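Tokens as discussed.
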């Protein structure tokens, strides 16, 4: 049997000495004991837990729960909170006491991590405000602006697997409640590392002198979000199904529906209330195969016109409609389809409101180019950004933004982040307006195609156990550009690491094909996946479907060859 590395054992024991959590302490004690006794599996597990530390970046922290520097736990969160406190104090200067607001969802330990953070922020001399209970991520993003906070923290891992958690950071002031971007991420990370190097989170000052946010904060979010699309007469009698995907969306959404005047949905009861174990889904992500099966089953039972789903922290929106040609009679719209419809709605509203010069639509570079066609049609500016709402939300003059991963920013004056609840209200408004004109959501989709063109998209996700596979494929594509994908010649390859279109450098390759199609390849920023995004524009719906299918086959063959 292989014995443990002395350095790993020393690191594990030092970690154990400062761990305040009895669960992870017991977990780590057992591993140390087994590794010291020469058990190879325990030694390997211990080595993995201390192989490094979860990196803090623009997405904050995200990882598997457990003991060790390479896991999410109370020690790591304490280091992050103390490091963030130091950054906020440094940024604010000495003439005032800065404010940080903290929110959390229904995942395992989210409430514990949030309270630890509030105590550490207060102990560091900040005004710390903890949201009153588990609430959606968009409520936290709203609260940062509403309370005039210098920063915000949301404890969530969004739609990751059940045993993950995370720590997202927002900045107030000039950042207007958006997620952090460089160089703030590196500056915060440096403070966190300095705290970690001291070696004892137990010595960090704590205080119970944090505040609990009043209910008026949630009331203000509800009022602002209900105003996104008050129910028109076409909403009367709408039959729709809703799932919260075992997350925190329902309590807040239900109050907004009542305020805005929409009929209550038929709920997927088994998924309506928070449960960090996510017992009915393999992955609590509406994009994943099977995740919406219970919603479709319920919709078939009641003959619903529409299905709406939020992910567990309710910052994403999924929509499905009846389709006799789809398996089971229901079809989930792609993120691009939803984004284009909501973008069309936003463009009409902007024109009606005479939004003025500089008003814009924005989407990530991997999202459908159809949004530019909408912007051009209505005389609005258009911006392409790197992936993530930390970039989309910063687009100049933004009135609407989206990314194909089911994220939509429909109310930028209220929330500078993706918001699955306000997007749900906007979608209900769109559907209700169509019903008032005797149309279905399928009719609206067809009308979009006739107006703006037949856009089709697809995505390939290659999930890996070994991250080096992703690096190897990206390196291969850079060293030897593909001459064709399938039977279509590649005309140009843009490497965003070198800087393209004034975008910040990113690990992204963009390929333009001879027929105008586009293929984008990039590693996921939050999961062990390589993602490939495919976009075509056809002469008809059938032509677009055929072209995207052919392109997808060619892209899969390319990945297989290079992997």
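Sequence:
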């Amino acid at each position: 049997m292989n014995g443990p590395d002395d350095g790993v054992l020393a690191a594990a024991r030092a970690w154990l000495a400062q761990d305040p959590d009895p669960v992870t302490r017991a977990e780590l004690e057992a591993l140390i004991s087994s590794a010291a006794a020469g058990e190879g599996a325990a030694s390997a597990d211990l080595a993995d837990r201390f192989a490094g530390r979860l990196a803090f970046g623009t997405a904050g922290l995200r990882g598997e729960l457990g003991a060790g520097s390479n896991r999410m736990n109370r020690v790591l969160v304490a280091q992050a909170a103390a490091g963030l406190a130091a950054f906020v104090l440094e940024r604010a200067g000495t003439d005032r006491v800065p404010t940080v607001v903290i929110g959390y969802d229904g995942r395992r330990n989210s409430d514990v991590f949030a309270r630890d953070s509030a105590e550490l922020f207060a102990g560091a001399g900040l005004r710390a405000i903890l949201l009153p209970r588990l609430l959606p991520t968009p409520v936290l993003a709203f609260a940062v602006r509403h309370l005039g906070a210098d920063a915000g923290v949301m404890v969530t891992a969004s739609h990751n697997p059940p045993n993950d958690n995370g720590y997202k950071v927002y900045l107030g002031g000039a950042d207007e409640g958006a997620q952090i971007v460089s160089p703030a991420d590196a500056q915060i990370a440096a403070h966190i590392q300095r705290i970690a190097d001291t070696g004892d989170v137990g010595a960090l000052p704590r205080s119970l002198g944090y505040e609990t946010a009043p209910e008026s904060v949630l009331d203000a979010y509800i009022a602002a979000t209900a105003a996104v699309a008050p129910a028109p007469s076409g909403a009367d009698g709408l039959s729709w199904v809703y799932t919260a995907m075992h997350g925190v969306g329902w309590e807040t959404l239900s109050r907004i529906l009542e305020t805005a005047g929409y009929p209550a949905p038929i709920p997927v009861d088994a998924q309506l209330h928070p449960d960090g174990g996510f017992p009915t889904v393999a992955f609590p992500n509406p994009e994943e195969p099977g995740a919406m099966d219970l919603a479709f089953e319920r919709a078939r039972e009641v003959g619903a016109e529409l299905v709406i789903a939020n992910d567990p922290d309710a910052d994403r929106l999924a929509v499905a409609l009846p389709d006799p040609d789809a398996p089971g009679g229901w079809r989930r719209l792609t993120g691009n389809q939803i984004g284009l419809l909501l973008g069309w709605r936003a463009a009409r509203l902007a024109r009606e409101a005479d939004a003025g010069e500089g008003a814009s639509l924005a989407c990530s570079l991997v999202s459908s180019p159809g949004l530019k066609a909408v912007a051009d049609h209505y005389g609005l500016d258009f911006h392409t950004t790197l992936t993530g709402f930390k970039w989309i939300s910063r687009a100049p003059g933004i009135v609407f933004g989206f990314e194909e991963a089911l994220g939509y920013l429909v109310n930028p004056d209220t929330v500078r982040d993706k918001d699955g609840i306000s997007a749900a209200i906007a979608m209900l408004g769109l559907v209700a307006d169509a019903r008032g004109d005797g149309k279905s959501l399928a009719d609206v989709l067809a009308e979009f195609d006739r107006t703006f063109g037949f856009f089709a998209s697809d995505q390939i996700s290659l999930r890996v156990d070994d991250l080096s596979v992703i690096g190897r494929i990206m390196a291969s594509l850079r060293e030897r550009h593909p001459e064709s994908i399938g039977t279509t010649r590649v005309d140009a390859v843009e490497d965003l690491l070198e800087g393209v279109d004034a975008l910040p450098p990113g690990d992204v390759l963009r390929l333009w094909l001879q027929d105008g199609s586009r293929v984008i390849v990039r590693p996921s920023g939050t999961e062990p996946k390589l993602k490939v995004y495919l976009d075509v524009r056809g002469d008809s719906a059938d032509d677009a479907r055929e072209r995207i299918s052919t392109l997808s086959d060619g892209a899969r063959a390319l990945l297989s060859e290079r992997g």
